[in-house]
Input
Amino acid sequence: MSKEPTSQNQDRPFAPALRRLREAGLRPTRQRLALARLLFDGGCDRHVTAEALHEEAIANGVKVSLATVYNTLHQFTDVGLLREVVVESGRAYFDTNVTDHHHFFYEEDGRLEDIPGDRITLGNLPDAPRGNAVSRVDVVIRLKSG
Output
């Protein structure tokens, strides 16, 4: 019996999240599926903290611990489904937009906003130390009300 998805299975509400997890090489556990749906099914890019996603999960009837949310977000980041954006020590956001881009960080309300990657030109970067290569440069521009 084939395990290939049928058109009926593809129409199920969890099908896009299931496909995304399988393509990333992650086993689709109940909690991963639920969190993937919350993160990706809205169709728009999101910046979330683990705490905010945990609250959203609980509000949607998903029984999951904060530790599991953290672990899942890091697993999603490790396989390229998310990008982690650290704005200060102990304060990280997880971004569903994994393309090359940067961020405005609004200090008053903690909001992140995308800046297209081609809007910032970087020059005079130092050479990476021997045996290393630059994998990515993240620019976070901090904003406060003036």
About this structure: The mean pLDDT is 91. The helical segments are 7-10, 15-23, 30-40, 50-59, 66-78. The first strand starts at residue 47 and ends at 48. The first helix runs from residue 7 to 10.
